[in-house]
Amino acid sequence: MSSKLIAICVPSQITAAQATAHRAPTVRDCIVQAGKAGAKLYNGQSVSVLLEDPDNEAEFSRKASESALVHQGVLRQSPIPKRLLVILNWKIGAQYREVPVSMTVGALKHLVEEDVKRVLGGKVRKYEFQLSGTANRPDHKTPLLNLTHYPARNICLDVLSERQLRPVTTPQCPSLNEHLLRKHLTRSRFQSGVDQGLWRLVSIRWPEAIFAVRPKEHRGRSHEALVRFQLHKYPQSVPVIDLWDVDGQSKIEPAEWPSWFKSFIVAYYPDFADIDPPSYTPELLRMSEIIVRKLKRGERDFWDSSGDITQCLARLLNSLHASEACLWGSSKRVSSNEK
């Protein structure tokens, strides 16, 4: 958690109150008191939401006087970001856009419709936005900043055409497992990856969720891999993972797996991924033999049930990066030979 990312003020009497308790105030003490005083983050959330993210635990346990977040006993207000990252999830792929922090949902809608109008030679299309992974459609007057998960600066929106719109229904109360997943998706470990353009949530239809992973260097292009997670026992057990075909709305069979996904399965099954193929193929049998030899050598790490879905996403990304690096190296050798 960066010293630039705190946006709260703390009553001056905290130091005296904590001194009375004969211990130095911690950053946690300051935030708790600020929450009681009604302090807000710049996106409108109560400051107490910071205490829900275990990634911040080390910083919160520090003495306030020793924390980079504190200056003369006061948590300083950070500057609001100048730009926001909006990820528009179209049916055909994702579009990453940087927009002014002052923009509203309605202004973004108008911008998108004008862009489409230019592309279609003046033909008018109307769209609505829906928060990815939910059935929630933000009001047009809502500032985009209010839709972020502090301190992340991204907003993920599904773009729906008029014919895709359905009546908004009251969502059912999620199961404990789904509630935990959605809570984990608001935390910094997941949101920082979205900020960097490494992964994003595509959709949730519990107990299934679809995520996209993409190498950072390809952020400007629509180059990403979609992966479906079956999360019946999340977070107690590893998810069942399928490579996903968004056009066919079906999983990609093992015979068509790219090399990077095969490498992921070989490296991380069964500790960070389970698979459920309809039938075995010669390629799956070969992969199984490699996995067995790996397990016999004791080359294992284990799923942490107190962790979150980024355990899988980071490893998927590692495999994808390794594959991209090999392809890039090959292309450089080909170019050199051609010269």
Would you tell me the structural class of the helices and strands?
A: alpha+beta
Tell me which oligomeric state these chains represent. single chain
Could you tell me the number of beta strands?
11
Biggest sheet strand order reads 7-8-9-10-11
Q: What is the number of independent domains?
A: 3
Which strand-content bin applies to the residues?
15-25%
Radius of gyration: 23 Å
Largest sheet: 5 strands, antiparallel
**Topology order in helix (H) and strand (E) letters:** HHHEEEEHEEHHEEEEEHHH
Mean pLDDT: 83
pLDDT under 50 segments (min length 5)? 1-20, 327-339
Please report the number of helical segments: 9
N- to C-terminal separation? Answer: 48 Å
Helix content: 25-40%
Question: Given the C-alpha coordinates, what overall shape results?
Answer: globular
Features of the shown structure:
four-stranded mixed β-sheet; alpha+beta; five-stranded antiparallel β-sheet; 9 helices; 339 residues; 18% strand; 3 domains; disordered N terminus; disordered C terminus; Ubiquitin-like (UB roll)
